[in-house]
Design goal:
The complex is a heterodimer of chains A (583) and B (50). With 583 residues, chain A is α/β, with parallel strands linked by helices. Chain A has 20 helices and 10 strands. The longest helix of chain A is centred in the C-terminal third of the chain and has 37 residues. The chains are: A alpha/beta (583), B mainly alpha (50).
């Protein structure tokens, strides 16, 4: 079935982009075809193909087809004892926040009596002594408070060779033979104990399953930007992930965390070499997860994304600058995959996945060039030609592209209402208001994100090695000065672009404003979206905000206690809720 | 790989990781371009043309 769905997705994308190309030819031919129109035709067809390809996984996810994921029947086999290592690689993280997550997960495992076969490893790659000393202090606190302290280990590498992949590899080389499975977490990951046990059980059931990826939902967002991201992840991502799962076959994705792998299979097939040449294209493989998934599949193991496993959470960036910083890392890592694309014996779908990752970052420059060429082309058309294209064609093209972008989101929201997940008319209305508000925020921030992505691509292409800087997971609010220092060049680009449009193609002014204005006001938007605005709290509500799961509550209580911000949290969360692991 | 703590180990109750080594062989992920294949292809085309 997966193969058929892949072909359907490709065929629909090809048909859609052909239709858009036909509309474009009608539009551009009306006032004479120029060489710039040929460039626009190629670029716009590529863009529509790309948009449709992305939309297809959302539409597939909406289809009432059964996932080809074997279900587990009954409890875990009592005599099948598998040793599991929970690995939390960290690199200059905030120890109270990170270690409180370990404490929360350990407490939940102890609470359900399933901690005996699961050891937790904090694998630090922090390089500064200051960071290491903070980790040491908070480790003491962690070990003092945890009932299962004998099962918590900490080690720090003096040199972080191979970064996160090297950190995990170092663990396997040292201790891999002691464990059957390893569940990899990020420093901001949280997983319900029941979800961990469920994943172990599913690995038990399928001996050729090399890696099982859960779908982590974003939690604990505070700012407007973070909450919009959290809302999108909660509402849309499960459907898109379902679509991905329907098309995955045995070659599913690995996202680097909240996933469990078979240690022996991983060790046999995922030893990553250094690529020849210098960074950014050579050296250590930065985005190791996609490559590891491809290598496991190459070795004959199944890699599976299972969006039906609930209780898997992660943090997300709370402002545009942190988002751009993360994008810079991912951009370099994904573009580096061009070196791996032709690796011997990789499965075709894995090559397509790698290519898709590369195009994730090549498309923003394509969009930008399309915009520039369109402005130039309108100017050319104004000179010496007077014919006007028929109105309906232009509107049809715009409506068509907007439809591809918005349709899956509206369908997903409608399905949510139809399936009874909103309990009243008011809740349903609030959901649609949230969807439209999300569209407004993402439309306003899209040109800024696009510019950051274009810069990231150019930096890589010009040989700048951005490395893998630590993530900021604590301070989210950005001052205007901070935002200006990072986004002034976007303001300049927007102002210059608008000036060119006014001078050369005034007719395009109205059309260019949705792109130019957010660019001109980029620092202001960066600041505003980083704020936690109380009046907007009613918007973008997600279940994890209204009724945090057991491990979330545990983490919030421990973190508040450790950082002295206890307030009335402990009173607030007195009644633990039943965890629904199978969503 | 040297594992450091930089702090009094006993005080922190840090324990060594379990010693259970496992080999992790390096995989081949790059395919170098062979100029010979271009030469062979050109030869093939020439032969076909007679």
């Amino acid at each position: 079935m997966a193969l058929t769905l892949r072909w359907i997705a490709f065929a629909v994308s090809a048909l859609t982009s052909t239709f858009a190309a036909w509309l474009f030819i009608l539009l551009a031919r009306a006032d004479g075809w120029t060489s710039l129109d040929s460039a626009r035709l190629v670029l716009s067809t590529l863009c529509v193909f790309w948009l449709t390809w992305g939309t297809m996984s959302g539409l597939m996810g909406l289809m009432p087809m059964r996932l080809s994921i074997p279900e587990r029947h009954g409890p875990r086999h009592p005599d099948r004892v598998r040793r599991t290592a929970l690995l939390m690689p960290i690199y200059h993280e905030d120890p109270p926040s990170t270690f409180a997550r370990v404490a929360a997960m350990s407490a939940r495992l102890t609470a359900i009596g399933e901690h005996q076969d699961i050891d937790i490893f904090i694998l630090s790659d922090s390089q500064s002594l200051d960071a290491a000393s903070r980790e040491a202090l908070w480790l003491e606190r962690l070990l003092t408070e945890c009932a299962a302290r004998e099962q918590i280990f900490y080690r720090r590498r003096s040199k972080n060779s191979g970064r996160k992949a090297g950190n995990v590899e170092d663990f396997i080389r040292q201790s891999g033979a002691a464990y059957d499975y390893a569940l990899v977490l990020d420093a901001d990951s949280l997983m319900e104990a029941e979800a961990i046990i469920e994943m172990i059980a599913r690995m038990d059931e399928a001996p050729d399953l090399g890696l099982l990826q859960s779908l982590p939902l974003i939690v604990h967002a505070r700012s407007i930007f973070g909450r919009v991201l959290q809302f999108s992840a909660d509402l849309y991502t499960p459907v898109f992930a379902r679509g991905t799962a329907l098309m995955q076959g045995r070659e599913g994705p690995y996202w680097g965390h909240n996933a469990i792998f078979r240690v022996r299979a991983f060790a046999q097939s995922c030893g990553l070499p250094e690529l020849s040449g210098k960074p950014p294209f050579g050296g250590q493989i930065l985005s190791h997860d996609y490559v590891e998934a491809a290598l496991l599949a190459r070795a004959g193991y199944e890699v599976r994304l299972d969006p039906t496993i609930g209780g898997s959470f992660e943090g997300g960036p709370d402002n545009l600058l942190d988002f751009a910083k993360r994008d810079q890392r991912w951009c370099q890592g994904n573009l580096q995959h061009s070196r791996v694309l032709l690796a011997p014996e990789l499965h075709a779908w894995n090559r397509i996945t790698l290519l898709q990752g590369i195009f994730n970052y090549l498309m923003p420059p394509v969009w930008l060039v399309l915009l520039i060429v369109s402005i130039a082309s309108a100017d050319m058309a104004r000179i010496g030609r007077n014919s006007v294209p028929p109105d309906w064609v232009g509107w049809a093209l715009i409506g068509f592209v907007a439809g591809i972008l918005i349709l899956p989101k509206l369908l997903i929201a409608a399905l949510q209402v139809r399936s009874g997940k909103t309990r009243s008319l008011a809740e349903a209305a609030l959901l649609f208001v949230s969807v439209f508000a999300e569209l407004v925020v993402s439309t306003l921030t899209a040109p800024i994100v696009l510019m950051f992505q274009v810069r990231a691509v150019l930096r890589v292409l010009f040989g700048f090695d951005g490395g893998w800087p630590a993530s900021n997971r604590t301070d989210s609010v950005l001052g205007l000065g901070q935002a200006w220092a990072s986004a002034w060049w976007i303001t300049c680009c927007g102002a210059c672009g608008l000036a060119v449009v006014i001078a050369a193609s005034p007719a395009l002014l109205v059309w260019s404003l949705p792109v130019a204005l957010p660019m001109i006001f980029a620092p202001l938007l960066v600041t505003l979206t980083s704020l936690p605005l109380k009046p907007l709290d009613a918007l973008w509500r997600v279940p994890s905000e209204q009724a945090p799961s057991a491990v979330q509550r545990e983490w919030q209580i421990i973190h508040a206690r450790w950082t002295g911000a206890t307030g009335d949290l402990e009173q607030q969360f007195t009644q633990p809720e039943t965890v629904n692991v199978l969503s | 790989m040297k594992h450091e703590t930089n702090f009094p180990v006993d005080h922190l109750r840090q324990r060594a990781l379990p010693y259970a080594p496992m080999a992790m062989p390096r995989q081949s992920v790059e395919r170098s371009f062979e100029w010979g294949s271009v030469f062979r292809f050109l030869q093939f085309v020439r032969l076909r043309r007679g």
